[in-house]
Design a protein that fits this description.
This protein is of the alpha+beta class and 450 residues long. Helix content is 24%, strand content 20%. It starts with 32 loop residues before the first strand and ends with a helix.
């Protein structure tokens, strides 16, 4: 298939699949295939696996049917015993403008993948191997790319929709008992058509639990690595939060909570925020600042959507200024004359719990979540036994926007993101963000759509 400009297009979506109602989960495993390559630490990934000069190698014959070809896993598999697994999450969508199959910013995912590989003592694949494997697994499963999103008839903004989620993985697949690098490494790429991570909750906003007792990541650890252990530690707290009526946890830098600066009147208000179980957080403050926790502490995952929102907010801050003024006015949190002259600033820094009291909007970002509003953040009661005589501060904040619908700034940033995804908005900063699955291997690596 080709569009009017002669660009090769993916086949139509598979008939009979309810793409728009799919949950965030592994869906239709009998319908897709995956890629699996192996190597050893000494050999690493070579031209035998993939040679970009000839577009050849073992990669091109590495497809396996998902349901009928399971991985060979042994009790002593390194990743099962020692957690040496990293992964990425990407999304492929059909463009409503060109009908191309487009992957969003895989270059950023590759950079994070390499960082994770080094942290877990795994040899990283070359950029060429990573990108070609991504392209091939999408071409092999192209019928599972959902239909292009519809455009809002009033604004022309693409509406939300399903996506084909891609998960590249790198793991220690060899057999051993000792604590050392795995004797075999597996590189995998699998897919699943999915809906939104927070499906059905966007309009009302999320209710977040401020977790004061348990830690997601600490300085000097692997909080900035997309490894399986970072998600394992959030599971028990997440289930506990949901039992209390929250959608997710917002984690603290616990050392800043337990060791506040001398003379601090509220140790909770001085504590530094981190992120959710699987999403970054942003605050829109009454001063006009759009802020997210910075990366310098090494405890925050450098999210691709996080970086995207920071870039879009900086690139188009003049366009955001009247919307910021609208948000602050509607919240009743600023003098009208000063609000009209508000300047939008975009920041990465330490964000304190106390900053939540000055927020007119709060939202979270992620590949699966996109941009989702938050309506409230609060603590829950801790049992006397768990406190063991210790005093504990509480907090409950409901934000001016987000209870019934997203705030103006949150809405605009989501629109900007979706416009970029749909080829309806671009700038010098965004020109390489979309990669056409049916372009040549070289052009796919370069990014950009022509």
């Amino acid at each position: 298939m080709a569009n009017e400009n002669g660009n090769k297009l993916p086949p139509p979506p598979k008939d009979g699949v309810p793409f728009n109602t799919l949950p965030w989960n592994l869906n239709l495993p009998d319908e897709h295939s995956y890629i699996h390559l192996t190597t050893t630490p000494d050999k690493g990934w070579t031209l035998e696996h993939y040679d970009p000069s000839t577009d050849g190698g073992a990669l091109l014959d590495s497809h396996a049917h998902y349901s009928s070809t399971p991985l060979p896993i042994y009790p002593s598999t390194t990743s099962l015993n020692y957690g040496t697994t990293i992964w990425e999450g990407l999304a492929c969508r059909r463009s409503p403008m060109s009908q191309k199959a487009l992957v969003f910013r895989p270059q950023k995912n590759y950079a994070r993948f390499v960082n994770g590989a080094r942290a877990m003592c795994l040899p990283p694949p070359s950029y060429e191997l990573f990108m070609r494997a991504l392209q091939l697994v999408l071409q092999e499963n192209a019928e599972l790319i959902p239909p292009a999103p519809e455009l809002d008839p009033e604004t022309g903004v693409p509406q939300g929709g399903a996506k084909l989620y891609i998960r590249p993985m790198l793991l220690g697949s060899g057999q051993q008992l000792g604590l050392h690098a795995s004797p075999q490494i597996s590189l995998l790429f699998f897919v699943s058509p999915t809906g939104s991570y927070f499906q059905g909750k966007a309009m009302g906003g999320l209710k977040l639990h401020l977790e004061r007792r348990r830690c997601r990541a600490a300085r000097g650890g692997t909080g900035n690595v997309k490894c399986c252990g970072n998600y394992a530690v959030t599971m028990r707290p997440l289930l506990d939060a949901k039992e209390k009526g929250f959608h997710d946890n917002l984690y603290l830098e616990l050392d800043t909570y337990h060791n506040p600066p001398p003379g601090t009147s509220s140790r909770l208000h001085q504590a530094v925020l981190q992120e959710l179980s699987a999403a970054n957080i942003f605050l829109v403050l009454k001063t006009g600042e759009i802020v997210t926790p910075g990366l310098k502490r090494g405890t925050i995952l450098p999210g691709v959507t996080r970086d995207t929102v920071l870039t879009l907010a900086s690139e188009f801050k003049d366009e955001l200024a009247p919307i910021m003024a609208e948000s602050i006015k509607a919240a009743g949190m600023g003098e009208e004359k000063k609000v009209d002259d508000v300047e939008v600033t975009v920041s990465e820094r330490d964000v304190l719990v106390g900053d939540l009291l000055n927020a007119v909007e709060v939202f979270v970002t992620g590949t699966a979540a996109e941009v989702v509003p938050v309506q409230s953040i609060g603590t829950s009661e801790t049992s006397a036994e768990e406190l063991d005589g210790e005093e504990e501060e509480s907090l409950s904040v409901t934000f001016p926007h987000g209870v019934t619908s997203p705030g103006p700034v949150t809405t605009k940033l989501l629109e900007m993101l979706r416009e970029v995804l749909a080829e309806k908005r671009s700038s010098e900063a965004t020109k390489d963000w979309l990669c056409d699955v049916y372009a040549s291997a070289e052009d796919f690596r370069k990014g950009g759509c022509n």
